[in-house]
Amino acid sequence: MSWKILITARTMNDVGASALQLMRDANCDLIIPPKPGPFSADELLKLLPDMDGVLASMDKFTAAVLESSLAAKLKIISRWGVGYDAIDVPAATQAGIVVAYVPGLLDEAVADFAFALLLALARRVHIGHHDMSNGVWRGV
After folding, report:
1. Contacts for 34 with CB less than 8 Å, ≥ 6 apart
2. Which CATH architecture has domain 4-100?
3. What whole-number distance in Å separates Cα of residue 42 and Cα of residue 126?
4. Which residues of 63-126 form beta strands (DSSP E)?
5. What phi-psi label fits residue 81: left (phi over 0), alpha (psi between -120 and 50 degrees) or beta?
6. pLDDT tens per residue across span 41-93
C-alpha cells in the first residue's frame, strides 16, 4: 500500500531533499501543491481528501479540519520544524492522528541568528541603518 503524503512545508525541495527521497523510495505518493503553506483551515480541507499524512508548514489544523470527513484517512501530521501550535493536538488525538515534529531541525540557524542579533545590537547596526536610510552620516 502506498501512502499519499501532502507536503506543505516550503523548504522541502532544498533542505528536505533527502527526506523527500526517503519517502519516494518507500513508494509514497508525494503531493506538493504549487504554492507552499502555511494554509488556512479552508485551504487545507480542499487538499486533505485521500491523504494519509502531511509534512506540514504552520498550516491551521483546527478541530473542525481534523474532525472533517475530508480528513478521514489522515494518520499523521508531522511539522517540518519545531513548533506544533497550529495543530489542535487534543482534536488530533481524539481522531487517532499522530502529531510529530522535527526537534533540533533549526538549532544551528536559530543560534546563528541570535548571535548575529547580539553582534548587531552591540555594534548599533540598527542606528546606522536608520541614519543611512534617512540620509544622515554621523561619522565615527
Report:
1. none
2. 3-Layer(aba) Sandwich (3.40)
3. 39
4. 76-79, 98-100
5. left
6. 999 999 999 999 999 999 999 999 999 999 999 999 999 877 888 999 999 99
